[in-house]
């Protein structure tokens, strides 16, 4: 091989390696949303005898359903659906379970709100 071809290949290799190192050292870590489960704490028998439950329908919907998602910046209902249902078509189920959180419709979603994720 000619010397100029070798020099060009060497320069190209060095530039590629430099680019890879630069990209890897400056890549921002993307925060994946965490799945948080809320469950009802067991009540000791002595305390249950003192305070019997008044109405069964007073239970929180979060306890019955079991999954809560806190919306991160830039997430859509389709993104959240992909996390929990492995497809983007489950956004309607999430929207129906949380209609009170979306007074302007499913396209307006604010970071930090807690969404109930139906089974």
Kindly summarize this structure in a few lines.
The chain contains five helices and three strands. It is mostly helical and 119 residues long.
Explain the layout of strands and helices.
Blueprint: H1 3-26, E1 36-37, H2 45-50, H3 61-65, E2 67-70, H4 77-85, H5 91-97, E3 114-116
Antiparallel strand pairs: 1-2, 2-3
β content, as a range? Answer: 5-15%
Specify the CATH class of the largest domain: Alpha Beta
Radius of gyration (Å):
26 Å
Oligomeric organization of the protein chains: single chain
Order of secondary-structure elements: HEHHEHHE
How many discrete domains? 2
Judging from the principal axes of the Cα atoms, what is the shape? elongated
CATH architecture of the largest domain: Roll
Distance between the termini: 65 Å
Explained architecture:
The chain is built from five helices and three strands. With 119 residues, the chain is mainly alpha-helical. The chain has a three-stranded antiparallel β-sheet.
Which features would summarize this protein structure in a list?
single chain; 119 residues; mainly alpha; Membrane-bound Lytic Murein Transglycosylase D, Chain A; three-stranded antiparallel sheet; 43% helix
């Amino acid at each position: 091989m000619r010397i100029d071809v070798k020099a060009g290949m060497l320069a190209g290799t060095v530039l590629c390696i430099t680019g890879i190192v630069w990209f890897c050292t400056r890549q921002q870590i993307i925060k994946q949303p965490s799945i948080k489960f809320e469950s009802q704490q067991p009540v000791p028998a002595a305390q249950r005898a003192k305070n019997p439950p008044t109405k069964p329908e007073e239970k929180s919907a979060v306890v019955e359903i079991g999954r809560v998602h806190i919306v991160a910046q830039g997430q859509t209902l389709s993104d959240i659906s992909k996390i929990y249902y492995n497809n983007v078509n489950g956004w309607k189920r999430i929207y129906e379970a949380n209609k009170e959180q979306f007074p302007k419709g499913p396209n307006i979603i604010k970071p930090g709100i807690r969404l109930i994720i139906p089974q």
